Structure formats: C-alpha cells, structure tokens
From TrEMBL:
Positions of (S)-malate binding: 145, 402, 446
Keyword Lipid metabolism: no
SMART domains: malic (SM01274), Malic_M (SM00919)
Pfam families assigned to the protein according to its UniProt record, in alphabetical order: malic (PF00390), Malic_M (PF03949)
Domain Malic enzyme N-terminal: from-to ranges: 69-249
UniProt organism field: Amycolatopsis saalfeldensis
Note describing how the cofactor binds: Divalent metal cations. Prefers magnesium or manganese.
A molecular-function term among this protein's GO annotations: NAD binding
GO terms of biological process kind: malate metabolic process
Malic enzyme NAD-binding domain boundaries: 259-515
Necessary cofactors: Mg(2+); Mn(2+)
Name of the molecule in the record: Putative malate oxidoreductase [NAD]
Residues reported in the UniProt entry to bind a divalent metal cation: 234-235, 258
C-alpha cells in the first residue's frame, strides 16, 4: 500500500474515508484532510444506506451506488452484501438496462477500458493503460444486444461494470482484479448516434471483415498483456456471439455468459421444476420462444441432459420445439443457422396444422415446459397459458427475457391463469406472488447464479479453459441446491442471501471438474475447496 496523502484518500480500492483512524491519518499524511470524527464501517454502511433510501427512483439509486463504488469500493461491497436482495436489481438487471440507455447522460467518471475502433493501431497501448496491472476477470461487450434493449453502443459498458460487481459480491473476486471493457465499434442505434451527449464513436457499426479483424487484434493484445485472464463475452448480437465463441473457446480461458451461463442456470432451475412436476426432463415436451444465442444455448444443454437421462440425440431433439419471430423452426426453412437447424422439426410433423406460431404449437403438442428468450413482452398470453395449464398438472413456465419490460409474462399473471399450479422462474426480478394470503418468492433464473462461481473456480484453480463439463457441473450443483426439492412450495432457486455460499459450492465442483478435464493443475478436492474459500475477497478495511 504505497500511497500516502491525497492519493491514498482518493484511491477507491484502498480508502477508508472517515474510517481512517487518527493514527492512520497521522501515518498516511491525512491529518486535516478529513473531518475529525472517526467512523466505523458499520456506521458508514448505516449512513450510506440512509442516503440510498432517500433517492427518488431506481436510476437515481443506481447513480448513487455507482458513485459510491467509484469513491470507496470496500464500503460499496459491504453495503451491497448487507442489502443484497434490495440492491441487486439496482446495480444489475433491470435498472442497469436503463443505465445503459442513458449512459452518456449519467456519465460521471471513467471505469475500465474503452477500446475504440479509431484507436486500433494502438490497441496494446490501450490495454497497457488499464487501471490495475493484475486482472483475473474481464467482462467485455460491444454493446450491440444489451439485455432485450438492442444496440446501445458505448452505453453497453453498464453491463460489464454491473456483471463484475457481482463477480465480487457473489464470487468473491478481488475488485482490484476485475476489468470491464467495451469495444466501441460504432452503433446502428440512430437515436444514440445523433444524440449530442453521446460519448461513443459516432459511426455506423463496422462491417464484419473489419469487425472480426478488430476482435482478433483485441484478443491478441489481451493474450499478450494478460495471458491467464478469464475473458467473458457479454451481450454480443447472436450473429457475432456464436462465431466468436467457436473461434476462441479452445484457444483461451473464455466463455460466453449469454449462451453458456444462461444454459447452466436454466438447467439448474429445471432440475427442481421437473422434480416438483413429477416428470423428468426426458419425458417432457419443451417449447422455447426465441432462437437467438441464449435460446439455442439453453436448448443444447437441455438436449444433452435428456441424452444423459437415456434418450438418443434424435429422440431428445424430437421433444424440443423452437418458435422464433417467423414461427416454428422446421427443416424446410432456408433461413436457419447451423445451431438452429439442429432443433428444426421435420416439416412433415406439422402437416395439417392451422399455423406454426406459439399458440399452434401449444395447441398441438403435449407441452410441459415453456421457456421464453425472445424479448417479446407479453408473448405468453392468457389463452396460451390456460391451454398449457389444461394439459398438465404443474406446467413449467419460464419467461426469461430481460429487462422487466421484455418479459414474456409476469409471474402474478401466470399464477392467476394456472390457479397457482405453474412452476415459474423469470429472468428479471419480480415481487413475490400472493395466493391464499401466502406470499411466495419467485425464482430469478438469471445467469448471475453461474458466472461469479465460474470466475471464482478458474481463478482459484488456475484453470486454462472453461469446458462444457465444467458448465454442466455448475448447472447440476445449482440444481441440487433448489429449495423446491425439499418443499414444492419453495422457489426453484436459492435466495440471494444464500447465493455467495452456493457460489462457493458451485465453484468447488467446477474446479474439481477442471482438474478432471486436465485444464487445471492437479490438486485434491479438499485442497481446491480450501483454496476457493481462502481466495474469496471480503469487504473489510485492511
Ligand atoms: N435470464 C437470463 O439469464 C438471460 C440470459 C441471456 C439472455 N436473456 C434474454 O434473452 C433475450 C434474448 O437474447 P438473445 O441474445 O438470444 O437475443 P436475439 O435477439 O439473438 O434472439 C431473439 C430471438 O427471439 C425471436 N423473437 C423476437 N421477437 C419475437 C416474437 N415477437 N415472437 C417470437 N419470437 C421472437 C427472434 O426471432 C430470435 O430468434 C434477451 O431479452 C436477453 O435479455 C436472459
Ligand atoms: O444481464 C442479465 O440480467 C442476464 C443476461 O445476461 C441478459 O443478457 O439478459
Ligand atoms: Mg447478457
């Protein structure tokens, strides 16, 4: 801790603000730079919580917390950890969505790296200018598909910042070793581009040739500067997300959270749901609304799970129905990507149907599981849900699109239309559902149950790759922690207060799997468990 004087006082990572003791103030040259009172961190938490509570709306609260993070990270995380349920929706989904839309307007201080296309000749210098030398986790976006809100250009930076806050809060990654990055490659959002306040590069998105060359340059610079870092891709448009993952997954320590993290959390939540419904996944017909990278990623994992339950690949695929903006994916469609084609139903199977929209599929098929990753708000209509509820005792319905404004249905509607029988999980947080005077928490099936644990696992175990098996183990360990397994009235996923502990459990299982897969140095399971517990950063003044 080399800093002294003002440099120390204003270093967000090491400052204690009014909690510097008199002795420390003398040692560090801070005498007179602070009011005389000496606060404890608990008093600071109380004070900041009061300040937070007086802000007028959620965006204002977001701005307050982000400013606190820029001022005093230890206090920020301490405050968050004591109010995790209340503050998660403020620093993360859904409020972070609005913060991205209004990024330039609410901008106060820089954070992380802005890797802009016009600086492409100096990418290495950009990387070298990173705020801290040692980095365990990078979250990078290009801002093109921010939640279900589309292209936000540089405003997408809110997402890496928010995700990394949760890497620390839940996964115990040292905040000094996290790095949010936005690749500023222009924006096709005309409103943003023409907004005089816009802080990004005012240019249309670059073409694919330039784009992939730039991404390659970026990856090369990251490898040179930070060869051991975990590089997480976030909120890229599906057309880029899949090729990027394919290109780098075997070359780097990397994963795509929207594809792989989402798949793992969905499978985890389905574990408790299938058990409560009394019918394993391999005996369900599954319908997915949305055939983007998130939807296809989830379905790949569901298919593997059905196969592990004894089905052949073809049998599993025949139980999976995917509907996109044009209707059901069938093998006579010429507009499907390779990933989508794997889930196309034979056109012959739908011959004689009146149509191929979601309502038709639910009408024709004995659906037990309905999932939404479509951004289509309200697409799970009363009619569709009532029909589904007529086919099965415990319909499993997950409207997973974010933010709240994009949800395919709201939990209280699903509860009403199914007389309380639906097993529900949502992507964004919702208020508890009330039935017969009893309030029930709604599980938030969001990849935040997964990515912090992956970060913790690979950092502690010094893994060099994120394998499919590591993701499957994460899903399984989360699934086994479902409160619904012991009481069907309980939510499908654990409460936020329990999530840091469950992340530790998931991380341990993932680290053990990394060793098994030969992508982390040999260590015993006990050693890994201990390493993971010990490596967790805690929000305490040092
Ligand atoms: N809960 C989570 O953890 C989680 C994780 C990742 C993504 N998501 C959410 O999933 C959504 C989709 O993400 P993506 O990257 O796959 O997006 P995407 O834009 O690539 O895919 C959207 C898909 O939905 C289809 N679609 C759009 N409008 C439709 C409509 N009206 N009817 C039927 N289909 C329609 C499109 O054809 C496309 O196949 C976003 O809202 C995102 O926030 C949630
Ligand atoms: O950011 C989230 O809340 C989940 C997911 O990564 C998404 O893109 O919607
Ligand atoms: Mg995302």
């Amino acid at each position: 801790m080399a800093h002294k004087g003002r440099a120390r006082l204003f270093d967000a990572l090491t400052t204690k603000g009014t909690a510097f003791t008199h002795e420390e103030r003398r040692e560090l040259g801070l005498l007179g730079l602070l009011p005389i009172a000496e606060k404890t961190i608990d008093e600071q938490v109380e004070h900041t919580y009061h300040e937070f509570s007086t802000r007028r709306d959620d965006l204002d609260k977001h701005i307050y917390l982000r400013a606190l993070q820029d001022r005093n990270e230890t206090l920020f995380y301490r405050l968050l950890s004591e109010h995790i349920e209340e503050m998660m929706p403020i620093v993360y989904t859904p409020t972070v969505g609005e913060a991205c839309q209004r990024f330039s307007e609410i901008y106060r201080r820089p954070r992380g790296l802005f890797v802009a296309y016009p600086d492409r000749a100096e990418l290495r210098e950009v990387l070298r200018n990173r705020p801290e030398r040692e980095v365990d986790v990078i979250v990078v976006t290009d801002g093109q598909r921010i939640l279900g809100l589309g292209d936000q250009g540089i405003g997408g930076m809110g997402i890496p910042i928010g995700k990394l806050s949760l890497y620390t809060l839940i996964g115990g990654i040292d905040p000094a070793r996290t790095l949010p990055i936005v690749l500023d490659v222009g924006t096709d959002n005309v409103e943003r581009r023409e907004d005089p306040q816009y802080l990004g590069w005012r240019h249309r998105r670059i073409g694919d040739d330039e784009y992939y060359a730039f991404v390659e340059e970026f990856v090369a610079a990251v490898r040179e500067e930070l060869p051991d870092v975990l590089l997480q891709w976030e909120d890229f448009a599906t057309t880029h997300a899949l090729p990027i993952l394919d290109r780098y997954r075997d070359r780097l320590l990397t994963f795509n959270d929207d594809i792989q993290g989402t798949a793992a959390v969905a499978l985890g939540a389905l574990h408790g749901a299938a058990q409560t419904a009394g019918r394993p996944l391999s005996e369900q017909q599954v319908v997915m609304l949305g055939a983007g990278s998130a939807g296809i990623g989830v379905l790949e994992m569901i298919r593997q799970e059905m196969v592990s339950q004894g089905l052949s690949d073809a049998e599993a695929a025949s139980r999976i129905w995917v509907v996109d903006i044009k209707g059901l994916l069938t093998d006579d469609r010429t507009d499907l990507s390779d990933g989508q084609r794997r889930f196309a139903q034979p056109a012959a199977r739908v011959e004689g149907w009146a149509g191929v929209q979601l309502a038709d599929v639910v009408h024709q098929v004995d659906v037990g599981v309905l999932l939404g990753l479509s951004t289509a708000a309200g697409a799970f209509t009363e009619e569709i849900v009532r029909e589904l509820a007529g086919k099965t005792d415990r319909p499993i319905i997950f409207p997973l699109s974010n933010p709240t404004s994009r949800a395919e249905a709201h939990p209280h509607e699903l509860d009403e239309w199914t007389d309380g029988r639906a097993l529900v999980a949502t992507g964004s947080p919702f208020a508890p559902v009330e039935r017969n005077g009893k309030k029930r928490r709604v599980a938030q099936c969001n990849n935040v149950y997964i990515f912090p644990a992956i970060g913790l696992a690979v950092t502690a175990a010094r893994a060099t790759r994120v394998t499919n098996e590591m993701m499957r183990v994460a899903a399984k360990t989360l699934g086994e922690a479902s409160p619904a397994l012991s009481d069907p009235d309980e939510p499908l996923l654990p409460a936020w207060e329990d999530v840091p502990e469950i992340a530790t459990r998931i991380a341990t299982a993932v680290a053990v799997q990394a060793v098994k897969d030969g992508v982390a140095p040999e260590r015993s399971d006990d050693e890994l468990a201990q390493l993971i517990r010990e490596s967790r950063w805690k929000p305490e003044y040092r």
